[in-house]
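User: Design a sequence. Structure:
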């Protein structure tokens, strides 16, 4: 829909005309001034004395004389002009006669009388004086016209005719749009274009039915949720799902971000909220989508500004507007956030955002469907198996999978291929997970041996421990910040983990450090990231999951966000004695896992050395080769 621009100041066309007019006037002044100065400079004769002009006349070098005020100018044969001041109360001719020039000689010359040169410069100075006044008068006229159009003033955000108080919501589709602007895009995304998230589609289908057939619900006195809160990790398709709701219902889609409400001027956010909901009611039935609502919907009372915080005023206005929806108003407010835990309770209570839809990371089947959507229209090779690729990408969101397909297409183009094969998909997946490959000689021969045995230690321990994920690839090629990497990939999605599974994972993480000590009798800094992950996992076993017999079935510490720093912290709810017991239990778990990993590698030392030598020769070992070595 084409929106009328009632903003402060003139319209874009009039502003453009004003700027062009000012630029042309300035260029005209500069050009005219330079031309006038040039002509004045070229018209100025060379300074001379009357005796010089008299001698030139006697020598026959002067063609004509020009009298300009009190100056006598002599034009010579060679084009040089000499100018001299005449004596006071004496004419120029009398002065020349006194100097010895005969009158007969003067009569043979062409004599002209011109006005004084000061008149031109007087006109130019007058123009320069009055032109700024004309410009000032023009701007005063424009300001008066603006004030007549917008009596509220420039900085008053109370009215909807002021652009500073208008919302920047983008409206896509709708009946009004078809009447006013036939070229405006209509929402074309439907549930068929959103792969995965089948449970979310089922929950949102009721909203689609309400937008299509509201009378069916109103007759029975049913109240359809006014707001739908979609929560999930970044990149899982919350915005796409909201567009699909509008596309399925065939209604306008009004999109705005939560950060667009907050301004430096007090009251602007609340004014934009009122404008947004007014626009939504005008386009009813419609879907209003507020992306990243946690920008304004955080829990009240924890900000730096207290109750006078502009963000809290904006949130209060959102709460009031959602309460003002009538049951027959076919407007659904859909909001998306990555942090539903920090939202204000008044925002998520029944009557506002009644329905909460979780859009989680896709499972194997959903990842395969997403890959099929993003690979449409792309030439795939025969060996490109999307089902196998879906198994290789656990934890990938929809945006990650889209990026994976795009990176594979770019890599195939760089390699000069006409189709995208499985090697391109695998290399792109490793690039996303571990970082770009670092080419060039980065490690010495001794360091390569340490890295090879380190990665071989991870792989051997993971292969010989139950409940561990299969090893997909082992490499000593540096990627990102890692000098080498071991890539285990789960065959299926695990929702429940046992204590034994955690202990085996700890053994796999510490296998690299154990291999270094076993082979070289010394350790390096290469296990820094492994130790960090192992410590975090052991702490979770003790304080979160109750996997410690000594500390019992209790959760130690409460996670909470810092409202001032925006970071997650832990509220300590246990004594100092318990803290020491937690530290001691974590240390015992790590020591036990390290001892077991070292014992396993001692038992399987032949396989460890065989794998390490293969890595030094080939640098990368894939799963088929690895399983043959471990057989």
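Assistant: Done.
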């Amino acid at each position: 829909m084409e929106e009328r621009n009632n903003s402060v100041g003139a319209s874009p066309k009039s502003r453009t005309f004003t700027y062009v007019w000012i630029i042309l006037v300035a260029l005209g002044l500069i050009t005219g001034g330079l031309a006038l100065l040039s002509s004045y400079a070229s018209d100025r004769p060379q300074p001379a004395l009357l005796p010089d002009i008299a001698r030139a006349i006697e020598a026959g070098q002067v063609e004509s004389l020009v009298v300009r005020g009190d100056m006598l100018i002599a034009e010579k044969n060679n084009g040089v002009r000499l100018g001299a001041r005449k004596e006071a109360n004496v004419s120029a001719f009398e002065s020349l006669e006194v100097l010895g020039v005969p009158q007969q000689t003067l009569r043979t010359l062409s004599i002209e009388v011109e006005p004084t040169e000061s008149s031109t410069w007087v006109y130019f100075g007058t123009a320069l004086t009055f032109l700024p006044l004309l410009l000032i008068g023009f701007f005063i006229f424009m300001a008066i016209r603006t004030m007549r159009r917008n009596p509220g003033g420039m900085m008053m955000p109370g009215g909807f005719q002021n652009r500073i108080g208008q919302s920047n919501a983008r409206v896509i589709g709708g009946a009004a749009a078809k009447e006013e602007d036939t070229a405006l895009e209509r929402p074309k995304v439907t549930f068929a274009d959103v792969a995965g998230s089948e449970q979310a589609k089922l929950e949102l289908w009721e909203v689609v039915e309400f937008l299509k057939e509201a009378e069916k619900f109103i007759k029975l006195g049913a109240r359809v949720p006014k707001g739908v809160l979609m929560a999930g990790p970044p990149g899982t398709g919350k915005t796409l799902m909201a567009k699909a709701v509008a596309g399925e219902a065939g209604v306008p889609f009004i999109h705005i971000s939560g950060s667009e409400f907050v301004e430096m001027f007090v009251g602007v956010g609340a004014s934009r909220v009122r404008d947004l909901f007014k626009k939504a009611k005008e386009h009813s039935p419609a879907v209003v989508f507020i992306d990243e609502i946690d920008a304004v919907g955080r829990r009240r009372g924890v900000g730096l500004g207290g109750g006078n915080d502009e963000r809290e005023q904006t949130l209060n206005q959102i709460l009031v507007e959602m309460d003002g929806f009538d049951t027959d108003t076919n407007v659904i407010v859909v909001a998306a956030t990555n942090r539903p835990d920090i939202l204000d309770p008044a925002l998520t209570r029944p009557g506002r955002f009644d329905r909460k839809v979780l859009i989680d990371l896709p499972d194997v089947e959903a990842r395969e469907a997403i890959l099929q959507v993003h690979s449409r229209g792309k030439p795939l090779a025969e060996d490109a198996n999307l089902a196998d690729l879906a198994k290789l990408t656990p934890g990938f969101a929809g945006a990650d999978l889209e990026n994976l397909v795009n990176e594979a297409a770019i890599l195939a183009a760089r390699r000069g291929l006409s189709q995208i094969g499985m090697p391109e998909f695998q290399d792109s997946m490793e690039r996303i997970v571990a970082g770009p490959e670092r080419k060039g000689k980065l490690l010495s021969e001794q360091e390569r041996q340490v890295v090879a045995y380190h990665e071989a230690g991870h792989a051997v321990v993971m292969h010989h421990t139950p409940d561990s994920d299969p090893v997909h690839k082992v490499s000593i090629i540096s990627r990102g910040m890692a000098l080498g990497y071991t890539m285990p990939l789960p065959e299926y999605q695990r929702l429940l983990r046992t204590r034994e599974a955690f202990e085996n994972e700890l053994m796999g993480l510490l296998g690299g450090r154990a291999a270094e000590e076993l082979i070289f009798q010394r350790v390096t800094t290469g296990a820094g990231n492994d130790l960090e992950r192992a410590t975090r996992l052991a702490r979770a076993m003790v304080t979160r999951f109750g996997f410690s017999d000594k500390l019992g079935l209790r959760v130690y510490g409460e996670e909470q966000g810092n409202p001032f720093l925006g970071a997650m912290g832990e509220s300590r709810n246990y004594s100092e004695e318990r803290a020491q017991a937690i530290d001691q239990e974590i240390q015992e778990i790590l020591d036990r896992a390290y001892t077991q990993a070292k014992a396993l590698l001692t038992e399987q030392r032949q396989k460890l050395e065989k794998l390490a030598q293969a890595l030094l020769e080939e640098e990368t070992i894939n799963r088929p080769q690895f399983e043959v070595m471990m057989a």
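The longest helix spans residues 12-43. The CA atoms of residues 69 and 116 lie 5 Å apart.
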